[in-house]
Amino acid sequence: MSTIAPYALTDRQRRIVACAREWIAERGEAPSMRELGAAVGLTSVSSVAYQLRRLRERGLVVQTRGRRSDRCPHCGK
Fold first, then answer.
1. In the chain, which end has fewer C-beta atoms inside a 10 angstrom radius, N or C?
2. Taking the CB of residue 20, how many other CB atoms lie within 10 A of it?
């Protein structure tokens, strides 16, 4: 079992973490995966998901906002 130091992040991963922190500080909510990708220069949501998965493997959890829906959260209509 190998342990990876948190400081052993790629430049892209550092930018994702920094961007998410800034976003939350400025807006009071987590960015969506699309917003996070656009802020760091990634056009594919799957690329963002991959980077977030790699960060989670290193022990860093970056919160993102889920998809917005026009449905009522109580009844689903």
1. N
2. 23
Nearest 5 degrees, angle CA 38-CA 41-CA 42? Answer: 80
Query: Would the pTM count as exceeding 0.90?
Result: no
List CB contacts of 26: < 8 A, sequence separation 6 or more: none
Report the distance separating Cα 33 and Cα 45, nearest Å. Answer: 6
> What is the distance between the alpha carbons of residues 62 and 39, in angstroms, rounded to a whole number?
14
Alpha carbon distance 57, 60 (integer Å):
7
